[in-house]
Each structure stands twice: as structure tokens, then as C-alpha cells.
Amino acid sequence: MAGTKFAYVKIFELPDPLLPGTYILVRLDGHGFHRLSQDHDFVKPNDERALQLMDHGARDVMNEFKDIMLAFGESDEYSFLFRKSTALYNRRQAKILTTVVSLFTSSYVFNWPRYFHSLSLKYPPSFDGRIVLYPSAKEVRDYFAWRQADTHINNLYNTTFWALVQQGGQTTTEAHSTLRGTVSKQKHEVLFSRFGINYNDIAERYRKGSVLVREKLTAADASGITERMPVEDDDPEGGAGGTKEVQSEKKNKKPKIHAQVQLYHCDIIEQAFWDARPYLLE
Ligand code: ATP
Ligand code: ATP
Ligand code: MG
Ligand code: MG
Ligand code: MG
Ligand code: MG
């Protein structure tokens, strides 16, 4: 193929390397999911099936790309943090971004029936994506704090909004105007005084989002793990990396420490999460 008189067109393809020594952050977000969630009868404010499907997609991405150390998901978005020194695809921007977003999207579609059963997709969903480079650990921590604070703000708003509609009998227009200009404290008050809902009793998944961590675990730690996502252990399709990894570890018989992707709904704004896992930012 090379050497034809046509091959010169290749030089129009420009290199797109990402700056070395920086943290690569990929964020993807569902395209038009406000509508998609309505068209597929998502439970409001939080459809657990949809969130679990998002987590499944993110786990598939982390199983494929071992240089992703941490991921955070809320609503229709997921963020992925690569190891600072990753050499994946020679740090080519388009290659990294398109492969991550496309794998996530295909996993979302592939696994849809597992979470939504007989409720079929009515059209093919898509996700947009971007890469942001961060120069130091501080910006990375602040990035994740920003996303988790966003989860909190949106969830408080949505929980109050849908309580006004579903339990308070307001129209969506009325609920919007009831909430216009209110601060967080007033929303807590509306929830508690009008609907008897204590915001802090709402599931952590909804208040804090999903945190997928590539944990370094000792064998002792690993044996104590009780809360795993089902895809890790009993995926009938035999999901990408997980099973293979376990098999090769058995063969080698020496894994004192191994990495495992764990799902949490924990605080990542406080320093404690990061202090416990310095390797995430190394
Ligand atoms: P864009 O294409 O610009 O991203 P969008 O319609 O996807 O537009 P977003 O700001 O990304 O808008 O918001 C996603 C919307 O999808 C939420 O506002 C919510 O209505 C809906 N949504 C996503 N996940 C869930 C879920 N698990 N449960 C209920 N609704 C959800
Ligand atoms: P990369 O991830 O770098 O793109 P690749 O394995 O996808 O690696 P390509 O150069 O894109 O390599 O080549 C795609 C390969 O897929 C072909 O070489 C061929 O082996 C296979 N392939 C694709 N489409 C077909 C097809 N319709 N019939 C048979 N083989 C196919
Ligand atoms: Mg968007
Ligand atoms: Mg969206
Ligand atoms: Mg979104
Ligand atoms: Mg190819």
C-alpha cells in the first residue's frame, strides 16, 4: 500500500501527543440523556439500573486499560484518571479518547439487557468525551472534588424537585419555581418538613456517586472483601481482563499484592481518601 502515488495523503494526519509527565483525565458524558432517560422510563430522580449500567461500563474500561487508576461516575458521566507516566498508545490523544469512549459505549449497549431486562433500547445511545491534562496532584484531587460536589448539588436539587412533583403534586414548572433561588439549607428543610425525608438517609450511591479504585490489596485484604460487583466474579460472558488475571495469578502462585478494581460510594473530597492511597497519584 505504501509507495503508491496516493500515499502522500497520510502526511496530512498530524501527530497529537499529550504532554508527558501530566495526568490524563478522560471525561465522557451521555449525549441527550435527559431525553433518553424519559424515553426509557428511568426512575426519577435516580434510576439505580442506569447507574449500575454506567458502573459496569466503567469497570469494563478499567479492565481493558490497566493504567487507569481511578474513575468517578454520576448521572450520565464518568471520569477516568490515568497513571501519570502512562505510555498508552504513545499518549496519542485521539487514539486514547476514541477507544475509551467507544469501549464504554459498546459496553453500555452490550450490557443494557442485563439491567433493563425486557425494556429494550429504542435507539442507539452515544457519549461525548474530552481529555484534560492536569499538571499536579492538587488539580487532580480538586477535579474529583469538583465532580463529587456537583453530584451532591444535583442530587439535592433533583431529590427535592421530584419530591415536590411526585409527592407534593406540583407540576414540573411549579417545582422549578418553588426551588428557584433556594440555598441548600432550604432544600433540606423542604424535604424534611414537607415530606419527612432526611437527606442524609438517602443512599450514598446517590449522594456521593460511584468511585472505582484500582486498589493494591494484599492477599489478606482480598479475602476479607465482601462487597464486589457481580461482574467481577460471575460474569457469564467472561468480561475482559478480570478472569484472565485471576487465572494467570494462580499459575504464578506468588501474588502477595495484586490490584483489584473496587466500587465505593465514599467521600473523595476529604484528604483521607487520597492519604490512604498515595499510589493513585504516583
Ligand atoms: P448533553 O447531551 O448536553 O450531555 P443531557 O440531556 O445528557 O445533555 P446532562 O446535563 O448530561 O444532559 O444530564 C443528564 C440527564 O440524564 C440528567 O439531567 C437526568 O435527567 C438524566 N439521567 C442520567 N442518569 C440518570 C439516572 N440514573 N436516573 C435518572 N435520570 C438520569
Ligand atoms: P489496531 O487496534 O491498531 O487498529 P487491528 O488489529 O485492528 O489493530 P488493523 O490494521 O486495523 O489492525 O487491521 C484490522 C484487521 O482486522 C485486518 O488486518 C483483518 O485481520 C481484520 N479484519 C477487519 N475486517 C475484516 C473482515 N471484514 N474480514 C476479515 N478480517 C477482517
Ligand atoms: Mg455533555
Ligand atoms: Mg449528558
Ligand atoms: Mg451529564
Ligand atoms: Mg484496527
From TrEMBL:
Binds 2 magnesium ions per subunit. Its cofactor is Mg(2+). It catalyses: a 5'-end ribonucleotide-tRNA(His) + GTP + ATP + H2O = a 5'-end phospho-guanosine-ribonucleotide-tRNA(His) + AMP + 2 diphosphate + H(+). Its EC number is 2.7.7.79. GO terms for biological process: tRNA modification. The keyword Transmembrane helix does not apply. Residues 7-135 form the tRNAHis guanylyltransferase catalytic domain. Mg(2+) 2 binds at D29, D76. GTP binds at D29, G30, H31, G32, F33, H34, S75, D76. Residues 138-270 form the Thg1 C-terminal domain. Keywords: GTP-binding, Magnesium, Metal-binding, Nucleotide-binding, Nucleotidyltransferase, Transferase, tRNA processing. Mg(2+) 1 binds at D29, G30, D76. One of its GO terms (molecular function) is GTP binding. It holds the Pfam family Thg1C. Residues 224-256 are annotated as: Disordered. The keyword Metal-binding applies. Belongs to the tRNA(His) guanylyltransferase family. Adds a GMP to the 5'-end of tRNA(His) after transcription and RNase P cleavage. This is tRNA(His) guanylyltransferase. The lineage of its organism: Eukaryota, Fungi, Dikarya, Basidiomycota, Agaricomycotina.
